[in-house]
Amino acid sequence: MMNLEEKLYRENLQLASVGSRFCAFLIDKFLISFVFFIIYWNDFSQTNGDYAMMIGLISNVIWQFICLSIAYEVIFLVLYGATLGKIFLKIRVLGVMLLDSPSVLHALIRTVMKILSENLFYFPYLFSLFSPFKQALHDYMAKTIVIRNA
After folding, report:
1. Average pLDDT score, the chain
2. Which of 2, 1, 24 is nearest to 147 (CA)?
3. DSSP assignment of 78-115, as one string?
4. Mean per-residue pLDDT for 92-110?
5. Can you give the pTM of this predicted structure?
6. Which comes out higher in pLDDT, residue 44 or 89?
7. Strands (E), the chain
8. Would you give the end-to-end CA distance of the chain in angstroms?
9. Is 72 helix (H, G, I), strand (E, B) or coil?
10. If we measure between CA atoms, which residue out of 100, 94, 104 comes closest to residue 135?
11. Which of 64, 149, 84, 144 lies closest to 108, judged by CA?
């Protein structure tokens, strides 16, 4: 049985840099936030800059934002192996077993772990700096890697 390093070499695949992954993350967060803001435009515009009202609105719709984030990421990972940010930066998520787009279960695990990591002050992302395959905790848990597209 081949280990992951041998598989990557055989398939001539290169890991994505942490920097490109970070940029893809920022693009995706911007896109999701933009879509969410458009959906709730009327509600946000009715706050008239009232900070307390804005915080109340955000606390009421935070679960919808989380669900939108999960749906976006899982759908794109399963269908394309990449979100729009990753597509733009020419990187892709692969399952380590078959070196193909992650299954629905692995994409869901990856996405939920990613959201939990964000709520833990991004500390689980530090795993990618010390992992031989640049895997953050959510990649490790979902058995995925991120590669550069050829």
Report:
1. 95
2. 24
3. HHHSS-HHHHHTTEEEEETTTSSSPPHHHHHHHHHHHH
4. 97
5. 0.91
6. 89
7. 14-15, 91-95, 144-148
8. 25
9. helix
10. 94
11. 144
Q: What is the mean pLDDT of residues 32-46?
A: 94
If phi > 0 it is left, if psi is from -120 to 50 it is alpha, else beta; for residue 149 that is beta
Q: What is the Cα–Cα distance from 86 to 63, expressed in whole angstroms?
A: 24
User: Phi first, then psi: what are they for 148, rounded to 5°?
Assistant: -85, 140
Is residue 83 predicted with pLDDT exceeding 70? yes
Distance (Å, whole) CA 62 – CA 52: 15
Return the DSSP state at 16.
P
Residue 109 corresponds to which tokens in the numbers above? 């695990």
Q: How far is CA 64 from CA 35, 77, 121, in A?
A: 12, 20, 21
